[in-house]
Write a structure and sequence with these properties.
It is built from 31 helices and two strands. It is mostly helical. A two-stranded antiparallel ribbon has the order 1-2. The longest helix has 27 residues. The N and C termini lie far apart (85 Å).
Length: 666
């Protein structure tokens, strides 16, 4: 890189102008579908429609509020002003606001080209860097989502700070550092991510500035140069600390964000290691991208995390060993690793495990570490030039096509969350959002289906429970609605509770809906006898006695004195199409042994035992059992059972075997 003292301003060549024009034209094609898209109910409403500092447009009162108050637990005055200016110019228009995002993204792209041109000393390498930034599918989220105006806007100031500081290398003056600091401050008004700028400037000091080296001998001789690089940036360090403090307290005072509170320290560490691997994968193989990758609700394994750790450690070791001969590798890799550190989830917040938008600036570091080796190979001969040129064209075309497809998923809320649900597993958040959209559109059955899908993943997700309760209360089933509302817990408590919700659904008469929750409950807790019993009862109501028999049998095997399950088990066997006399005798013996002094629950069991004896053809024994049940019912003061037992006794006196079906004492 040319020394700043001797560098002269060099105008853009025709080739460079052509490269920029080509990138801008292709960007317009890639993001053209945004012209007909709508807002998405994924923070757009919070940021715009429900934001008093934005929805009324530019005004003095709004400007004061933008700089003195927070909204949605964020202090983003420049972003709020930018959006309010859009409202003044275009009204609350999603296509117009998305077009502004595209414009800001392209400004950042051009600035990155100019920076890369200076650092790489090659228009084609700079063009490839700019193309990666412009077209990479990981950047679609930041551009197509109106809420991410803060990414596109802060990106401009990232690039201005890089350009300003790099022009000053290798001997930046106080004036030039002040200019860089100014871009940092303005950028932080759009998004506080620029608080990481001092770290990035240190990387630029190492390369391309070459102001210090990580060499023991050199550090002993010129160690003060490293300290100088640190010390001269003290305004940026102080500002970064101040901004971090403001962010922390605004998040706390604003109530923070929805959080998956079931995360343990171990799972947070595992997710942090996994995140690096996922991000690297998405840089080179950007398939199945979406707007929300949820925090897993079940404890995962360390397989992917260990693999990510091995990759990160191996690459880190390699670039460190090459720090003297290929310092750009360490610079690019450090750019990615260090700038992503706040986002990988070591200290986790939110429901997302990772997000494409967080790669908006760190992606440049990975691109830098890849482009420079290719640039050097490109100079080795005509065969290398042709191969690398063709590969670059293919890569740019693939990125543009993939991004074009990715843009279409931002058409509206339903399209966006259908995509999220399709490419992620157990995404309760996506199911809940789809349910809300279907409910708003009057598609109640579809809404109920997706609410249940969300609850099947996180049964204590109170938002889905309460909204589902509202549906039942308004559609003529207030009993089920009240039970669901009563069962609702504080949001984001834990990914368990399938048994509680399943039991609540059974009590509300929602048997079909209860089955998957009870199945999940007995999968998670094999000794949950209440789950087997409730599932058996649900199967009876759904007309599936054979499955009910299996469930009651498992419940009784776990707890022989579970009288309700035992009563149903005896009755179902007594009225089954095929059953052996030995099985009936065993159940009769088990039942008589289990009977205790709790008379209020004995009558149903005596009824089942009597039916079993009648099925064997022993009507005398059946009558004896009914008499004992009749006596127990009279002693307990249960007139309903008394009448029921008298009817049964008449049947057995006439040698009539009970017909299959749900017993009257259900």
């Amino acid at each position: 890189m040319t020394d700043s003292k001797t560098a002269k301003k060099t105008p853009l060549t025709r080739i460079e102008i052509g490269i920029i024009a080509g990138i801008l034209l292709l960007s317009a094609i890639v993001y053209f579908p945004l012209h007909s898209q709508d807002f998405v109910n994924f923070d757009d409403r919070i940021y715009i429609h429900e934001n008093p500092m934005v929805k009324e447009g530019v005004s003095l009162d709004a400007l004061v509020d933008q700089f003195t108050t927070t909204h949605a637990a964020y202090w983003l005055p420049l972003t709020w002003f930018s959006l309010s200016l859009d409202v003044t110019l275009f009204g609350i228009s999603a296509p117009a606001m998305k077009a502004v995002n595209v414009l800001l993204h392209l400004i950042s792209t051009v600035l990155l080209f100019l920076w890369s041109r200076r650092v790489l000393q090659s228009p084609w390498a700079a063009g490839f860097m700019a193309a990666v930034f412009a077209f990479h599918p990981l950047h679609v989220e930041s551009v197509a989502w109106v809420t991410e105006r803060k990414d596109c806007l802060s990106g401009v100031f990232w690039m201005l700070a890089l350009w300003t500081y790099t022009r000053a290398l290798p001997t930046p003056t106080v004036k030039q550092i002040f200019k860089t600091w100014l871009w940092m401050v303005i950028g932080c008004l759009a998004k506080p991510s620029l608080l990481a700028l001092p770290v990035l400037l240190l990387i630029l000091d190492f390369w391309p500035g070459r102001r210090f080296v990580f060499n023991l001998t050199a550090l002993r001789q010129n160690g003060n140069q490293l300290w100088r690089c640190l010390w001269e940036k003290w305004p940026l360090w102080v500002t970064a600390a101040g901004i971090a403090t403001v962010v922390f307290f605004t998040q706390q005072s604003g109530g923070g964000r929805e959080t998956a509170q079931w995360l343990t320290p171990e799972s947070q560490l595992r997710l942090a290691f996994e995140a690096y691997g996922h991000y690297l994968h998405d840089v080179f193989i950007p398939n199945n991208l979406c707007a929300l990758y949820p925090v897993p609700v079940e404890a995962g394994t360390w397989g992917w995390a260990v693999g990510s750790m091995i990759v990160v450690a191996s690459v880190s070791f390699t670039v460190w060993k090459l720090r003297c001969t290929a310092p750009y590798l360490l610079a690019g890799w450090s750019w990615f690793i260090l700038l992503m550190l706040p986002y990988v989830g070591i200290i986790h917040f939110g429901v997302q495990a990772r997000a494409d938008r967080w790669m908006y600036i760190p992606l440049v570091g990975v691109a830098l570490a890849v482009v420079i080796p290719l640039q050097r190979l490109h100079k080795k001969g005509i065969w290398y030039q042709r191969t690398i040129s063709v590969a670059a064209i293919i890569i740019i075309a693939a990125m543009a096509i993939t991004s074009f497809k990715q843009v279409h998923y931002w058409q509206n809320t339903v399209r966006l969350f259908e995509r999220i649900a399709a490419v992620t597993e157990h995404n309760y958040y996506a199911f809940d959002r789809l349910a809300q959209e279907y409910r708003a559109a009057g598609k109640i059955e579809s809404a109920k289906t997706f609410y249940y899908k969300a609850l099947l993943v996180v049964p204590r997700f109170s938002r889905s429970q309460i909204h589902l309760a509202e549906i039942y209360e308004r559609t003529g089933d207030p009993g089920a609605g009240r039970l669901l509302r009563k069962n609702a817990r504080h949001p984001w408590t834990a990914p368990d509770g399938h048994l509680d919700l399943g039991l609540a659904l059974v009590r509300g008469g929602l048997y079909r809906e209860a089955v998957p929750f009870l199945k999940r409950a007995i999968e998670n807790t094999p000794r949950a006898q209440d789950g087997f019993s409730a599932l058996g009862f649900a199967y009876i109501q759904l007309g599936n006695p054979s499955s009910a028999r299996i469930m009651f049998d498992r419940a009784v095997a776990l707890e022989p004195r579970l009288y309700s399950s035992l009563s149903h088990l005896v009755w179902l066997n007594a009225t089954a199409e095929t059953v052996s006399p030995d099985t009936l005798r065993q159940l009769e013996q088990m039942s008589t042994n289990a009977i205790s002094d709790i008379t209020s629950i004995i009558p149903p069991l005596w009824d089942g035992i009597a039916a079993s004896a009648a099925r064997r053809g022993d009507f005398d024994a059946a009558i004896q059992y009914i008499d004992r049940g009749l006596e127990a019912a009279e002693q307990a003061g249960l007139p309903r059972f008394v009448d029921h037992m008298k009817q049964r006794k008449k049947q057995y006196q006439n040698h009539i075997v009970p017909r299959p079906g749900t017993p009257q004492w259900k």
